[in-house]
Design a protein that fits this description.
The structure holds 2 protein chains of 2 kinds. By secondary structure, chain A is an alpha/beta fold. In chain A, a hairpin with a 5-residue loop joins strand 2 and strand 3. In chain A, helix 3 crosses helix 8, helix 4 packs across helix 6 and helix 4 packs across helix 12. The C terminus of chain A is likely disordered. By secondary structure, chain B is α+β, with helices and mostly antiparallel strands. Chain B has one domain: Histidine kinase-like ATPase, C-terminal domain (Heat Shock Protein 90), CATH 3.30.565. In chain B, strands 1-2-3-5-4 form a 5-stranded antiparallel sheet, covered by helices on one side. In chain B, helix 2 runs antiparallel to helix 5. Chain B is globular and about 45 Å long. Classes of the chains: A alpha/beta, B alpha+beta. At the A-B interface, helix 10 and helix 13 of A face helix 1 and helix 2 of B.
Chain lengths: 435, 147
């Protein structure tokens, strides 16, 4: 398999960026530097696409790369496959079936609710956990950022990732076959788009880690279509007409809607599970997993957005309100269950939900590929850290002194980049006779 | 053979400090990632280091953790001042523990600490003096790669 070019879901708009260090300070990976041109730049080698930079940028200079509605026209038949988060974006009174109807009006030929598929995935997960007692804890795979974080920062934990594909992918696979067969449309003319709360899904679609090629054609952000949907809703006096092909009245799964929140995947699972949300807390708990601290936990559900997918950077509704809306929907639909134990076992045995390939470790680059040189650089780094002021001002263009030291030994920065350095004796470039 | 470059660091471990217990092992993990040690070896070492560190936290007054990486191996030495171990052979048995009910309540003291350390190391030495303390030495060999 030829190595595909990696895809990134975030870029810096150099026209808007003023080099104010806000994103650089917020980046949990320390992947952003402010260059000599006073513009932020992302080191994609270690970026995990968490979009913390996008959240904090005061100048809208961090741009998410998602599918634009204008790109839809490339396909003859357009299908929307919304994240359950969409249902939380329009207040308490507009119901999922109405939201799906409005979504269709925005310009899709077909709209498919994904909550039942989420419920299936929950059930299949439970079967998997039942059969795999060890190692523990098994870690969730639905958040693409978590997968990339583990590959890069916690590569030894790759084996713990649950090898179950995201429901959006399985749903897209089934839909394409179904529509193609039913309406006699060539599969390649059907464009299936996830309606997403984050740009990270674009990464899993364009550069999947657990399959050769994604079943989805793209992801449109909730932000991108929110205004259009709101207009249609207003026009209909907030009482949109239900579309005929949307016979969802009895097809919204309460368990599936719960996927918009942390705990959603495991709320119905009987195993001892813990769910964590937010990028910093996720990193922290994965460190504990690495040290072997959490062996008594069976399943660990991680979401890098605060409060899970409702806290996605490309949502519109305040995440606390959205969360309340989801909880309300869960109460309303909690008894709508579609997958019984027999079906769950059958689905599990059929293996439809399983990864096509294992997620491989992709450790972030060490100080040097050569172990001896890496050790030398490590020692040098410690020496440099001691000489730097340690107040992490960021003027040098690196987020903190430690990171500047790291950059220096990787030959990406110079000690003189620090305006407050007074020692003048520890320039590795001089030491190593930079000639 | 070329000169052996080493990186060494010492960590203090405070007995009874469950809040910071585990930090040293975490730092060791980060250092090994910088050096480019393979993920499976890092995992073995962080697990062993964590168990050793927590043993000092749980059973001793204080301890020091000495950590050294060279191009061919990683060495971890933990020395603590504490009550020591009476019967090492017994302590090495899986499931044997002298932990109190409170400690077990916190999720420690399952009697897997020492066996886990041994399982994850290539060389494992332990010595103890009752009333004085325990010394543990862990060595993990590094495969010869990336010349």
């Amino acid at each position: 398999m030829a190595e595909k070019k990696r895809f990134h879901s975030i870029k810096i708009d150099k026209k808007k960026c003023i080099g104010c260090v806000t994103c650089m300070k917020a980046c949990p990976q320390k992947a952003i530097r402010i260059g000599k041109d006073r513009k932020a730049r992302i080191n994609y080698r270690i970026c995990i696409e968490c979009a913390e930079c996008l959240r904090v940028c005061p100048h809208n200079a961090v741009v998410p790369i998602t599918t634009k509605t204008s790109d839809l026209d490339k396909f003859k038949y357009k299908v929307a496959l919304p994240s359950p988060v969409l249902f939380s974006q329009f207040g308490q009174y507009i119901m999922p079936e109405e939201i799906l109807s409005v979504l269709k009006e925005v310009g899709f030929d077909y709209v498919k609710d994904g909550t039942v598929m989420c419920e299936m995935a929950s059930k299949v997960m439970e079967e998997y956990l039942e059969e795999h007692k060890l190692p523990a804890p098994i870690i969730s795979s639905t958040c693409p950022v978590v997968v990339r974080l583990i590959q890069g920062l916690f590569p030894a934990l790759c084996d713990l990732i649950i090898p179950i594909e995201a429901p959006r992918e399985i749903a897209a696979k089934g839909l394409r076959e179904e529509i193609s067969r039913r309406d006699k449309i060539p599969a390649e003319d059907i464009g299936i788009f996830h309606i997403t709360p984050c740009a990270a899904k674009m990464v899993s679609i364009n550069y999947p880690e657990s399959m050769e090629k994604s079943y989805l054609n793209g992801a449109i952000s909730i932000r991108e279509i929110y205004n259009m949907m709101m207009m249609k809703l207003k026009k209909a006096g907030l009482r949109p007409k239900l579309q005929t092909n949307i016979h969802v009245q009895d097809q919204i799964s309460g368990i599936g809607i719960g996927w918009a929140l942390p705990d959603g995947q495991v709320r119905s699972v009987k195993h001892h599970s813990v769910s964590v949300s937010g990028i910093h807390d996720t990193i922290k708990i994965l460190k504990d997993v690495e040290a072997g601290k959490l062996k008594n936990i069976k399943y660990l559900e991680c979401h890098t957005c605060p409060d899970g997918c409702v806290g996605g950077p490309l949502t519109v509704e305040n995440r606390f309100v959205a969360k309340s809306n989801v909880l309300m929907l869960i109460r309303k639909y909690h008894d709508k269950k579609f997958v019984d134990d027999y079906t769950a076992k059958k689905l599990y045995k059929e293996g439809l939900f399983f990864f096509k390939s294992k997620v491989k470790p992709k450790p972030f680059p060490p100080l040097d590929k050569n172990r001896a040189r890496a050790l030398k650089k490590l020692k040098l780094k410690e020496e440099i850290i001691k000489k730097l002021p340690g107040d992490n001002c960021g003027v040098c263009g690196a987020p903190d002194c430690k990171t500047l030291a790291d950059d220096i030994v990787r030959n990406k920065a110079k000690l003189t980049d620090c305006r407050f350095f007074k020692g003048g004796t520890c320039d590795p470039n001089q030491k190593e006779g930079k000639s | 053979m070329k000169s052996n470059i080493i990186f060494e660091q010492e960590f203090k471990v405070e007995g009874g400090d469950f809040i910071n217990g585990g930090d040293a092992s975490c730092q060791i993990g980060n250092i090994l990632k910088d050096v480019g040690i393979s993920p499976d070896i890092i995992l073995r070492l962080t697990v062993a280091a964590y168990e050793a560190e927590m043993n000092s936290v749980i059973y001793a007054r204080r301890g020091t953790m000495y950590f050294r990486v060279s191009t061919d191996k990683i060495l971890l030495k933990i020395e603590d001042e504490g009550k020591g171990i009476d019967d090492i052979e017994l302590a090495m048995k899986e499931g044997y523990s002298t932990a109190t009910a409170e400690i077990r309540e916190m999720g420690f003291g399952a009697g897997m600490g020492l066996p886990n350390m041994k399982r994850n190391s290539d060389i494992f030495n332990i010595s103890s003096e009752v009333g004085k303390g325990t010394k543990v030495e862990i060595v993990v060999n590094l495969p010869e790669i990336n010349g």
